[in-house]
């Protein structure tokens, strides 16, 4: 008896599997990009010289040690965070200004610069009149934060940003997409076999 294959269902399954495989290869491409980015972050973190923020491009300087004059702090916030010893509590942030630079695409943009001045167990607002902040630069939403190396305004030092804490899960994601594609094909093959056996 001729084993007929349903054309439409087969096309749908193969197209879905091909899409999953394409997503897997896309994740592998993202893996290479992420590894290059992490390597840049590691080089920045190894540079111990404190550079003036006006002399660096923030989009290329994440985790570098920088200095910035937060002369007019505004809009205080306290968010959950850790101190330099890993204890949980609250880190205190002030908006310090904007930095005119370029984004990853080379377009001019104004990024918000936030100063993280320290840590405390309670979320009460500290009295911070402004001043120079020296610490590591890190991404914060669409802008950047500078995490002060020493606690200001009577606060304890916050934990410094660590590029080693950034996840790089793209290889695992790629493996998942390849597995999903293989699983879909195997399930469809088993369904076809069952259909053929039922007709026999």
Automatic annotation (TrEMBL):
It is a multi-pass membrane protein. Pfam families: SURF1. GO terms for cellular component: plasma membrane. Its main location: membrane. Keywords: Cell membrane, Membrane, Transmembrane, Transmembrane helix. Signal peptide: none annotated. The chain crosses the membrane at residues 7-28, 171-191. InterPro entries: Surf1/Shy1 (IPR002994). Belongs to the SURF1 family. This is SURF1-like protein. It comes from Aurantiacibacter arachoides. The lineage of its organism: Bacteria, Pseudomonadati, Pseudomonadota, Alphaproteobacteria, Sphingomonadales.
């Amino acid at each position: 008896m001729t084993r007929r294959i349903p054309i439409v269902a087969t096309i749908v399954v193969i197209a879905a599997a091909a899409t999953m495989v394409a997503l897997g290869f896309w994740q592998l491409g993202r893996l290479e990009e992420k590894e290059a980015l992490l390597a840049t972050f590691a080089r920045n973190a190894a540079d111990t010289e404190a550079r003036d923020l006006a002399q660096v491009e923030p989009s290329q300087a994440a985790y570098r040690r920088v200095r910035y004059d937060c002369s007019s702090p505004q809009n205080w916030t306290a968010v959950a965070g850790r101190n330099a010893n890993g204890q949980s509590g609250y880190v205190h942030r002030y908006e310090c200004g904007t930095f005119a630079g370029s984004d990853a695409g080379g377009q001019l943009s104004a990024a918000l610069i936030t100063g993280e001045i320290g840590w405390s167990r309670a979320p009460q607002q500290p009295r911070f009149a402004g001043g120079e902040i020296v610490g590591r630069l890190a991404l914060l939403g669409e802008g950047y934060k500078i995490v002060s190396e020493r606690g200001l305004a009577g606060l304890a030092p916050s934990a410094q940003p660590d590029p080693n804490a950034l996840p790089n899960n793209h290889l695992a994601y790629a493996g998942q997409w390849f597995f999903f594609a293989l699983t879909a094909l195997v399930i469809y093959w088993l369904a076809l076999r069952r259909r053929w056996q039922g007709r026999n």
